[in-house]
Amino acid sequence: MMKGLPEGFLWGGATAANQCEGGYMEGGKGPGTVDMIPWGENRLAVMQGHMDYRELPEDSYFPAREAIDMYHRWKEDIALMAEMGFKCCRFSFAWSRIFPTGEEEAPNEEGLKFYENIIDEMLRLHIEPVVTICHFDVPLHLEQKYGSWRSRRLIDAYLRYCRAIFERFKGKVRYWMTFNEINMLMHLPFMGAGISFKKGENELEVKYQAAHNELVASALATRLAHEIDPESKVGCMLAAGQFYPYSCDPEDVWEAMKKDRVNYFFIDVQSKGEYPAYAKKQMEREQITIQMEPEDEAILRENTVDYIAFSYYSSRMISAHPHPEIETSGNAFKTLRNPWLKASQWGWQIDPLGLRITMNSLYDRYQKPLFIVENGLGAVDTIQKDGTISDDYRIEYLSAHIREMIKAVEEDGVDLIGYTPWGWIDLVSASTGEMKKRYGFVYVDKDNAGNGTLERRKKKSFDWYQQVIATNGECLRQDGRS
């Protein structure tokens, strides 16, 4: 039996352009949909597509526009990755930095050059770039003109973008992901896919139509990537986390299975190449009609993904019956509070074994390599008088999850490519728009209102993660308390 993780396992960290890059409207960049999502009381309504960003108060603060200014500090930040010993870095391109409106015939050379400089620097330092093509970033022009992914016109725009980056970075980028947390479209449609709703329309039908357009685009992008660079690997990516039933009441168990299917739907199509029977039956029951072209079925069937990437922060719990007294927060939607689990300061439940359970569920279902591309703890960090930041709670969270990850590989036989914890550096929280909800091994001096020097400072977890990578996780086996 294999012991531990395989040689060449890809340890690293993860970020997204709209949460760390900044550089709003610099270097020829056009505005993106995420640039229009405010911090504060209106954030959720805008993310859900129920409030028009054009109706926001004039004094609204948009955290994505500066974020942590990685646009100007990328070299310094990549040096920190290299110091930790990263084998890879998962990050995203801002679509509107390369195609400012999404409809240009030729890409913005300054935008391409920006990412080329980053990729070349990573490769120089032996860090494998892992690129998310669309991480909640849609050029605002495409939302205003076509309604974003509700229109099939987005497929051509997306493929033009894909061709430009696949050709430019052939031989430099091996791992691509078509859409970040593609299932987030069902929960936060404007953030996930630039979808806003008109009064009285069938929101579920709009979401499924947008989902279909994204799924066809993903399949065509997978085909294109393989044509341009047969060595490239293209993955899908979902926000994962097993749903536990509230009780052994069969109705609760059935409810949990249904909730899991809502998340699995996208990946079922991307990995298996067809709409699952349960989804077809649901659309039939809900009288949802999806506009499809005759060739779509063949496109989906013939262009499945090479690997399954996913985020995991916590498990969820569900009941067939209301239990408002025990509701708590989760990644984009509420869940029931599990009495067996502790929770973060934001109410997200901490379930390391849940990661192993989720890995096995995904691997059993798809039998394709997995890639954990987000996992982490959002917490308030305090700088001590001597300038240090002792984030032992983060070390404890990550240690416990990594141990379960290793068990899934070593004892269960799960094929795992790598592990890139979320927010290796502090960045803007996607769910709340806050900076005080910190995930990183590196502290960034900035507050929720945008004040701060943006100075980078290592936390205690920086040296800890450096050791984890250097030993390929073996230090966690030797010291059960690490």
From TrEMBL:
<feature type="active site" description="Nucleophile">
    <location>
        <position position="374"/>
    </location>
</feature>
<dbReference type="InterPro" id="IPR018120">
    <property type="entry name" value="Glyco_hydro_1_AS"/>
</dbReference>
<keyword id="KW-0378">Hydrolase</keyword>
<comment type="similarity">
    <text>Belongs to the glycosyl hydrolase 1 family.</text>
</comment>
<dbReference type="InterPro" id="IPR017853">
    <property type="entry name" value="GH"/>
</dbReference>
<dbReference type="InterPro" id="IPR033132">
    <property type="entry name" value="GH_1_N_CS"/>
</dbReference>
<dbReference type="Pfam" id="PF00232">
    <property type="entry name" value="Glyco_hydro_1"/>
</dbReference>
<protein>
    <submittedName>
        <fullName>6-phospho-beta-glucosidase</fullName>
    </submittedName>
</protein>
<dbReference type="InterPro" id="IPR001360">
    <property type="entry name" value="Glyco_hydro_1"/>
</dbReference>
<keyword id="KW-0326">Glycosidase</keyword>
